[in-house]
Amino acid sequence: MKKISASSSISSPEELQSRTCKCRFLARYYTATTLENGGRRFYRCDRIGSNYCGYWNWIDDKLSRHVSTMIHNKKVELDSIRKEKKSFEEDCGGYGWHWRFLFEGYDCR
């Protein structure tokens, strides 16, 4: 079973190097969205439950509280917008045409 690291924008060649967890799989690349560490990038074992080996490696230094909080709040806002969009799509059915009605102020409910 081979694991492939997630792709993302990484700024330096040393960060592009794959990381192997203690399970000998490629560690997965993530960006934290928590209040405490919003925006910090890290690698961790991609396995779950009892198979998780505990591998965790921060790529970035800790960000300022202000920046971390701002990133977290934007993630919460984005999640809310995605939830609203999904609800709208389910209520109106289909994709594509619904954005025209949304921006024109039309509510299909």
UniProtKB/TrEMBL annotation:
Domain GRF-type: from-to ranges: 21-62
Database matches in PANTHER family: ZINC ION-BINDING PROTEIN
Keywords assigned: Metal-binding, Zinc, Zinc-finger
Cited PROSITE patterns: ZF_GRF
Listed InterPro entries: Znf_GRF
The keyword Metal-binding is assigned to this record: yes
Molecular functions per Gene Ontology: zinc ion binding
Superkingdom in the source lineage: Eukaryota
Name of the protein described by the UniProt record: GRF-type domain-containing protein
One Pfam family recorded for the sequence: Zn_ribbon_GRF
Keyword Nucleus: no
